[in-house]
Amino acid sequence: MAEHARVEIRCSGSGGQGILLAAAIIAEAAAALGRHVVQTQSYGPEARGGASKAEVIISEGPIDYPEVQTPDVSLVLSQAAYHKYAGDTKPGGLLVYDSGLVELDPGDDRVVRCGLPFTAVAADELGKKVVTNIVALGALAAVSGILPVEAVRDAVLSRVPERFRELNEHAFGLGLRLGQEAEPVTSSAPQTA
Amino acid sequence: MATVVNETTPAAGRKPVLLQGNEAVAEGAIAAGARFFAGYPITPSTEIAEVLSRRLPEVGGTFIQMEDEIASIAAVCGASLAGQKAFTATSGPGFSLMQEMIGFATMAQIPCVVVDVMRGGPSTGLPTEPAQGDVMQARWGTHGEHSVIALVPSSVEECYTLTIEAFNLSEQYRTPVILLSDALIGHMREAVVLPDPAALRIAERGMPDCDPAEYDTVTSTLDNILPRPPLGSPFRVHVTGLVYNRRSGTPDTSDPAAAADLGRYLREKIYHHRDAIVRVEEVEMDGAEVAIFAYGSVARSAMAVVREARAQGVRVGLVRPITLWPFPTAAVERMAEQVRTVIVPEMNIKQMSWEVQAAVKGKAKVVDYGRVDGKLITPDEIFELVKPEFYYHKWEER
Questions:
Q1: Where are the domains of chain B?
Q2: 10 Å Cβ neighbour count for A14?
């Protein structure tokens, strides 16, 4: 459907990985910049596990249909979510995934791939797996360029309680550096992470 | 009596905020003056209770998590009788449990608001997925002849403004008002610019303008619905679910004329004011040959279709009821005179489409389209219904 120029982002993973918060933060950043933005989510009745997704649409004009059909950018944090949700990514779009948790199907070269070890970085360098989503957000902000990095960082900090501010700032910074140093793969050459 | 309506035009200079539909309901209720909430959390309405458990104490209000939904609406009725603007929020299974007391509130003319964030059903159904399967339950869920007001938001902004309107209508017409949100709208976040609180028009309850000693001898008329005085005031009130004498309020089940008087009044109290209550948004209906009748989240998909169709020079319009009950009969009749086809996509099977057909009276073709899998109907699906209605349009050349 032709509308105003719009960017669609899908974050997916399993329940408990902070997918929803990641999407809400992206939406918050877009709202602060005065963009039209809609964020939706889809998850099962379970509190943990299962494949869940949260989506963001950012547009210069009003957003009618609020759901994402072919994301321009996909963030994938689990194998189940990769199989369930990543296949809709727009050809030539960007797939950012956790290289420690997700193994791409052979020949999946329709999209630009960027695998980074978000969970491992959160666990090993910060000792807190719980900030995996914030590490991923930092990388996503750097690699995708959908929003100014500063806007995303501000949105992260506005969403977290004061006592976790430093941890999240650190997590975002680590992710940002991962993203800046990453070399997304566009050819059909085998991906190494 | 003029209906208080808040236009959605935001005050200039106010900044957009990212708000979830359920959060907007909670904030709208507080802006409307609601200071009592009793509820039992249930997906996908839980955030309303969650936000209010924090926000209501901040504004001097009361939040109570009750043991179940029956107790919740009973507490709401009690609080309203004591003079508070009160409400509850729930979803399918809880809405079913509340039906008896919604009838009591209708009979006893207790202003209150019930928010139903619709999810897939029946029973436990699809707890996290949206549906529109409760639209007829909102109309006829409680037993007996009665009328009801139900509003249906299709954006986060409307979750805010229509919650305020729901309270205004409930106060003005002394009746329960139902806000029919759904899992998609309730959980969705949007950047919205809320109206300036100082510019909002809020219906206050007030007191009857008669001598308390004469209260049980005066009667509300259709054009002068007396406010309900709170329990404990100098006014003597009698509250009952039985048929009662409209003057004294005391039960009277032996006089058919009194029962008819009350029964007719409870219905006409709403329908006499239908023109003031009912709100419908019409988009691109100028010269439209085909209309899409869609409400709530589905209206957003319909809107995308109208924009796309008009961009291609195809005359499609949207008729979006904001008030679902009373049914916007006049708007549908007008639409039926103009278009040759009305398409009714909804996340149930034919529930409102029957109602549309009844109002269209054969003057246009009615095409229904339903989905009950917990997924929002897409613009593409609606477009496929539009195309056959313009068989002469050269779709392929575009």
A1: 1-277, 280-397
A2: 19
Is this model's pTM higher than 0.90 or not? yes
Nearest to B123 by CA among B103, B101, B96: B96
* Contact (Cβ atoms closer than 8 angstroms) between residue A9 and residue A56: yes
Task: Express the helix, strand and coil content of chain A in percent, nearest 5 each.
Answer: 40, 20, 35
Domain B1-277: top CATH class: alpha beta
A49 close to B (CB below 8 A): no
**Please, what CATH class does the domain formed by B280-397 belong to?**
alpha beta
In chain B (398 residues long), the average pLDDT of successive 10-residue segments reads: 45 81 98 98 98 98 98 98 97 98 97 98 96 98 96 98 98 97 98 91 92 87 90 91 92 94 95 97 98 98 97 96 98 98 98 98 98 97 97 76
Of all residues in chain B, the one with the smallest CA distance to A24 is B189
> Which chain B residues are Cβ-neighbours of A60 within 8 angstroms?
none
Of the partner residues A3, A28, A41, the one whose CB lies closest to the CB of residue B307? A3
- Assembly ipTM: 0.91
Closest Cα to residue B190, out of A163, A48, A31? Answer: A31
Q: Does B18 touch chain A (CB under 8 A)?
A: yes
Phi, psi of B179 (to 5 degrees): -105, 115
